[in-house]
Amino acid sequence: MREVQHFIAGAKVAGTSGRFGDIYNPNTGDVQAKVALATEGEMDAAVQAAANAFPAWAATNPQRRARVMFEFKRLLEANMDELAELLSSEHGKVVADSRGDVQRGIDVVEFACGIPHLQKGEYTEGAGPGIDVFSMRQPLGVVAGITPFNFPAMIPCWMSAVAIACGNTFILKPSEKDPSVPMRMAELFMEAGAPEGVLNCVNGDKVAVDAILDHPEIKAVSFVGSSDIAQYVYARGTANGKRVQAMGGAKNHGIILPDANMDQAVKDIVGAAYGSAGERCMALPVAVTVGKKTGDEFRERMVEAASNLRVGVSTDPDAHYGPVVSAAHKAKVENYIQMGVDEGAELVLDGRGLTMQGAENGYFIGPSLFDQVTPEMTTYKEEIFGPVLQIVRAETLEEAAALPSKHQYGNGCAIFTSNGRAAREFAAQVNVGMVGINVPIPVPVSYHTFGGWKRSAFGDTNQHGPEGVRFWTKIKTVTQRWPEGDIGDQAFIIPTMG
User: Fold this and answer.
1) Which one of 103, 431, 460, 467 is at 20 to 30 Å from 363 when CA atoms are compared?
2) Catalytic residue numbers?
3) Do 179 and 36 touch, CB atoms closer than 8 A?
């Protein structure tokens, strides 16, 4: 059986712990590979490799680091089909979604190619008599990223591309559920010309996570996952003196006003709620309809749209989405569906019990739809992370807008309307980190920044974009003066650039 190893100091390294995790094919329920789970010693070996590589990589001028990123981008594009198919085989999302996962990662690598400009400091001439002040952004050292199963290509790139371009060396701990794509990307990064030890990939579970959070050589940690674990990572990492950004869960709302283009709203929300089997932190699992007429029309249209979705195996080119990632996650989502029924919500579409001919043991859940959901329900308060859409009905925009603002999560939300003033005021006032106006999944492009509020994020710096550069660097400010007489009688030689 295939074994996924570690990638340390530029080479694959077999695990020595004797502990392995199963990697399933979500389409069939079969174990297709084993992944080595690291010990603290194996994590330390990766950290030492990164520490050894750091001085030379940090001293490499930014344009040379950018050239490595340019070549890495080219290799990712050239190997897109391989990466997407490998991703789908372990995650379960359809190949088209997997290609999008890889492409969004490539977008951040492309952003990191601009590091010579992005890492520039500031300069003030004549801050005082003969005094100039300037600042420089310098890398932190050895840094780390802990990434989730749902975007095994994009999120590792969010973290590692910007961090490495800034001159840091990196330890990646991907999800043990689908680690093969991050491992393959590490190989491609070496092929792009990166020195040994600049990017290391260590597979593992909580042992590996705690080793990252406790290791004194690791200066910063970026995390994406559930809110409870994000809070744990932030607390333990910062207690050990590390800089930490930890992104957690979400419950994104889509508010539909009476003047919305209903055709477009339904089309957008059906994709945002059910695409990738709902396993996206920026999925849109709550539709808030304003007014009875709007709610009734949306429900009718959504029943038709969701009923026409095709659920299939990952390789089915006609499938809208595939299985969820694991048997345990399937059971969790189905338990939430039953909880919604028990709480009194109206289950309009029930996706439980779906099987695929020839893939009867796959982790499939059909589109599920609830109406008459209220904010008091546990299923509304918590993140389901599956193909389940909940309709919450409101009488006014003010009532609807209060829902995402008061919710424990604050990742993102969307509003569907033809009223520019309403949209503008909503975007300015709603208490979440990312807003879409007639855009159902408002994930920013790579040269902006990604991050939520409240229990969706711990720490005060966001992922990628300019915020990413700030997170992965530290500022040094220099105040200089050159008094007369310092150079004596020697001629002043202007140094040449080399």
Assistant:
1) 103
2) 281
3) no
